[in-house]
Amino acid sequence: MKYFLSALLLAGACLLVRPSFAQSPGVNASSEALAEIVVTATKRTERLQDVPVSITAETGVELEHRGATQLQDIINTTPGLNNPGSGGGNSTNLTIRGVTTGTDLGLKQSTVALLYDDMPIDPVGQGGGASNLRVVDIERVEVLRGPQGTLFGSGSLAGAIRYITNKPDLSQFSGSVEMTGAQTETGAASFSGYAVLNAPIIENQLGVRLVAYDYDDGGWIADLRSGQANANPTKTDGARFSIAAKPNDQFSANLTLTYQDSKDYNGTDNGSLAVKPPGTGFSGQVSDGINEYLIELKSTIAALTLQYDWDSLTFTSVSTYHDRKSNLTGTDTYFVPLTALIAGSPTLVQGVNIDTSGIDGNIYTQELRLASKGDGNFKWTAGGFFLHASQGGGQEADSDAIIPVIGSDNIVDLIYHFGQQEIAAFGEATYTFADKWDLTGGARVSHYMVSAQINTGGYVPVYSILPSAYTHTDFHDLGTPVDPRVSLAFRLDPDLTLYTQVARGYRVGGVNLTSDVGGRNTPSTYAPDSLWNYEIGAKGRAFDGRLTYSTDFYYIDWKNIQVALQNQLGNYTGNASEARNYGIEFQVDAKPISWLLVGAAFQVSKNEISKDDPTISRPATGLVGVVNGDVLPAAPEGQASTYAEVDFPVANYQGYVRATASYLGDEWTDFEHNGTKFGGFATEGIRGGVNFGSYEVVAFINNLSNSQGATGALDPETAGPVIINNQELFRIRPRTVGLTLRAKF
Questions:
Q1: What average pLDDT does this structure show over 220-228?
Q2: pLDDT tens digits for range 427-455
Q3: Residue 231 in contact with residue 287, Cβ under 8 Å?
Q4: CA 508, CA 387: separation in Å to the nearest integer?
Q5: What are the DSSP E strand ranges found in 610-745?
Q6: Helix (H) or strand (E) holding 716
Q7: Which letter does DSSP use for residue 228 in this model?
Q8: Residue 128: beta bridge partners?
Q9: What is the 3-state secondary structure (H, E, C) of 354-380?
Q10: For residues 517 and 34, what is the distance between their CA atoms, to the nearest angstrom?
Q11: How does DSSP assign 102-150, residue by residue?
Q12: Alpha-carbon distance 505 to 510, whole Å?
């Protein structure tokens, strides 16, 4: 409770002092004022301060300046946004405002929508982690906290992250090149680079933009089984091509093609052992090597945006296609001891199981919308949306070691196909009255169908001593959710907005892939879940624009929550209980003097079960049941970040030094502080550079104090004599020192 009181006092103090120092209407802001950010979070172009939604937005220039290159860099500085998943990369598990029931997303639809130029990247069936598209040549990143179902549909249960890419500049030729080298303590070196080229073909009418990048991030965790040091590197390369046309003042078109190939080595097991065995021979972190996987994700994205302007209306068509190929190959060793036990032959311990999985999917979306233009008292947006997502793949686990037992090497044989279709109509309107009040109301009516066809079979020694017959599951789920949003904003003057809003979000249901393998007989499906979010907030500018701030208090009522459960034969996803999440968020940026920039952001929250439920039986800890007041797993009660930047002259050029720090509160893998504890750590960084005009040199140290803080964890899990996995922590990268060279023309 003391955290809430402190936060409320701080937010209230900012509101109280603000009017005394705010500029008078009509007075020009100081040239030293902080730049105002324009966003399109409501699918209209508005000042960030005017949008009655809790948003953190950063421009591409700001992201580049602080060295942000991937999704985890956005997470580190955004209050309320978290990743309790198995490390970063393609295993990222996005959560906002504590709307989570564990560290593992599995194949459930994410509670946070990841949008790339308004394209939903990871709908249902595409789960297993967010697509880690690199932050290169980005116009802006917007993090929208709270459900965004009205404008962005399912999967935005707790919020949304939007990447808006840079489009071709039709007026001038330009480009940039960047190269970075870095060394991680007790780890391998990392290298990265990108190039951007922008070229008008017909001045002010037709132009192209080309981006290419490559990231080779060295590992730092040693594999005890193979003896390999630095066994968890990641390699990413990609390219983006855009062509834009504006033949006249009314019509514009933009086609963007994006390709990325990302490889996470030991991607699902890149955690280090929570307790390092003595005498391992490695000075840094180590993994037991039980599960050794390579996750490769290839994304090919095409997006076509057409826009036509009339005097009072704008018509927009957005067509997108995403071809998503995910492949997992690796080795499991935990089947072997049990096989040996059943057969009574110690020679079988020499066997090794190879697990391969390939998933091919595609996502097509089409959105058509009309929006009013102008600054009148009535503004509106209306549109229709269609989504078709398809994913198919298979998984095989086999081992020569079990041939003497059952006459076959087949442990698991799985073939499946997912499908999701959604058609929706949405609209939102704002009416301004008394010149200071904005009343906004909107709704989205969707009709979706989720389907799955699954064939499973094979010998699963953890659950059965005999091969199971092949089974077929055919799953269909239909729904017609309605997601409304209502907000009321009061603008005391151009520099202060007070608002309150109510919004609903939902997430579709799904199917448990291996519910019938090896006699598990667990429920084959799970139902949708939904929540209501209630929020009040304030956004303001003060001291002639030298200070900006935003704060909000929210309360979430979450029902029929999707959660990982367990019966006596296996793990599965089900629905259970209800939860309440409430907290306060605050963000401030200030430029008190011309050469100093400072800022801070924090969130304090309470995330807990609101209704007793005796059915929640957890996979790893073996605990059964939850009661009102039990804290949700993987939901920190506090997050904070801060920075300070000093600018100074270096000869005739501009230099700067920027220091940052962030804190992540305590988290647990299980309800009510049970399971493995992680989080509860701070990390710092420092970077400094000199801008020589056409080129820039930047030196940096990340994780300055060499913290071994963990953003996620894995509980120890066994099945009889078999060790499924040991207790592991997904720690942040150790201290890393690097140098960046950047040139622009």
A1: 87
A2: 999 999 999 999 999 999 999 988 888 88
A3: yes
A4: 14
A5: 613-617, 624-626, 638-650, 653-670, 674-691, 695-702, 710-714, 717-719, 722-725, 728-731, 736-744
A6: none
A7: B
A8: none
A9: EEEEEEEEEEEEEEEEEEECCCCCEEE
A10: 59
A11: -S--TTSPPSEEEEETTEESS-TT--SS-------SEEEEEEEES--HH
A12: 17
Q: Which tens digit of pLDDT belongs to each residue from 118-130?
A: 888 876 655 556 7
Nearest CA-CA partner of 80 in 146, 7, 162: 146
Q: Report residue 359's pLDDT band, with 50, 70 and 90 as the boundaries.
A: confident
Write out the DSSP string of 299-350.
EEEEEEEEEEE-SSEEEEEEEEEEEEEEEEEEEE-THHHHHHHHHT-GGGGG
Give how far Cα 246 sits from Cα of 39, 201, 207, 317, 631, Å.
Answer: 22, 12, 9, 15, 54
- Both tokens of 210, joined, read 């080309």
**Please, what are the domains in the chain?**
2-23+31-531+539-744 (2.40.170.20)
How do beta strands 159-165 and 112-116 pair? parallel
Name the 3-class secondary structure at 177: strand
Hunting for tokens 């490769």 — which residue is that?
296
Q: Are strands 653-670 and 722-725 parallel, antiparallel or unpaired?
A: unpaired
The token pair at 114 is 């990841």
Note the pTM of the prediction, 2 decimals.
0.88
| Consecutive H or E run containing 154 | none
Q: Which two tokens stand for residue 167?
A: 């489009």
At a CB cut-off of 8 Å and minimum separation 6, what does 720 contact? 338, 462
Residues in CB range of 509: below 8 A, 6 or more apart: 450, 477, 479, 525, 526, 527, 528, 562
The values of phi and psi at residue 705, to 5°, are -85, 5
Contact present, 115 and 162 (Cβ < 8 Å): yes
pLDDT score at 332: 63
pLDDT in tens, 294-339: 778 899 999 999 999 999 999 999 999 999 888 777 666 654 444 4
Token pair of 43 as six digits? 């699918």
Report the alpha-carbon distance of residue 445 to residue 424 in Å, rounded.
6
Q: How far apart are CA 607 and CA 555, in angstroms?
A: 10
- Rounded to an integer, what distance in angstroms lies between the CA atom of residue 733 and that of residue 424? 42
Look up residue 194 and give its two tokens: 């990108």
User: What is the chain's length?
Assistant: 745
The one-letter amino acid code at 730 reads F
Identify how many contiguous H helices and E strands the chain contains and give both numbers. 6, 43
Strands of the 138-145 sheet, one edge to the other = 54-59, 138-145, 159-165, 112-116, 119-120
Sequential DSSP letters for 521-532 = ---SEE--EEEE
In the chain, what is the greatest distance between 2 CA atoms, to the nearest angstrom? 87
Is the pLDDT confidence value at 347 over 50? Answer: no
| DSSP codes joined into one string, 30-92 | PTTSPPPPEE-TTSS-EEGGG-SSEEEEEEHHHHHHTT--SHHHHHHTSTTEE--SSSSGGG-
CB within 8 A of 202, min separation 6: which ones? none
**417: exposed, middle or buried (C-beta count within 10 Å: 0-12, 13-18, 19+)?**
middle
Q: Are 643 and 598 in contact (CB under 8 A)?
A: yes
DSSP 8-state symbol, 631: B
Report the SS3 class of residue 618.
Answer: coil
Candidates 233, 145, 216, 102; CA nearest to 619 is 102
